[in-house]
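One such given next:

>
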Amino acid sequence: MRLHRSPRTAATAALGAALVALLAPPPAQARPSALPTVTATAETAALYDDEAGGNANADDPAIWRNAADPARSLVVATAKEGGLRVYGLDAGLVQSIPAPAPPTADDAPGRFNNVDLVTGLRTPTGRADVAVVSDRGNDRLRVYRIDPSRPGRPLTDVTDPAAAPVFSASQSEINEQRTAYGLATWTDRSTGRSYALVSRRNRTEVALLELKATATGTVGYRKIRTLELPSSFRLPNGARWSPCAEPDELPQVEGMVVDPANGMLYAGQEDIGIWRMRADLTGKPVLVDKVKEYGIPGVYDAETEECTPGADPGYGGRRLAADVEGLTLFQESDGDGYVMSSSQGDNTFALYDREISERNEYEGGFRIGAASATLDGSEECDGAAVLNAPLGARYPRGLLVVQDGHETPAAPDGEGGERESTGFKFVDLGAVVDAADM
């Protein structure tokens, strides 16, 4: 993800900028400039990733539909060290939940990365809707029950206190932050059991966790199995290739979504492309599409913490510019629909046919531009969520919520610079459907 100023981030950003001049332009139908533009109807207040702003950094949203009163539906969104934010459909803040404090002053703080929802989770007291969050700082999942009868406090933490780290064996390993990162939920229609698919930061590993309600009403989880995606690839010319990165860092997955109709998981390996695989993590993953930068060699310079790219051999895709982020699913009532992905490197969104029989072929895309000088578009989008269902008079044809990695107008930092600000944009889904001819 580009907003974290880690060595790997700097390397990826530098590589992406240098590649613009190297990559041949794609066919006209796939050029970002040829894609339709839609605008947001509302935006959340800016989050600031500094001490004054509580180190809050917008990342990933999920949309909860209030079946009894759709106009009072909610958007649940992560803010990294800033915790969790809950918004109304007017993009106004309803609730702010802090991330957990670190065990000691020397340990990593809580850091909420991704969020997804489970509707009708089985509990001892009946069914419940919950938000599941990956806490990258503590390498755990946190679970929040959604109760719309509690104005101003609709989310309540129901995480099992005994919940164990997802990947790490000790606090020292947790502090290294190769921890729970991307997340998608899935309820197996054949069994009614609910799961979370969780990726690991700086690794290719994805874990399947079954969500388990306890007798006391809390929710924990148990690991079922893991799967590792490739970190290097054989190119058509016979060479082996891995994306350029800091030593000992592998191409990670973040954006993920499960199609509930067939139990297929779509996972965005940021510098590689979009994979399709069974959500139970059995069988062989299929690479649906590749990023444009796929196959381009790079040399990492430890002193500058940047990559120097080589010549483009021409093996990359045509629609996605690294990083692949923000996967979400547009579902239609007849079973059709689209897998939607943000193409972070060129500020666009790509649409792929939901049908496996159609090999998830590319169906087009769009961008989100500025509606005014104060209501800007979406740049370097990390997370996205779409809900194709009526949400009252405000969004009668559904809603798309996307992260904006560069909130404008920027706020001064008091030292001649600008505060790093992010937020979420609310987009009328009907406008997207019309513009992209979905």
Observations:
- The longest strand covers residues 112-123.
- The chain is about 5% helix and 40% strand.
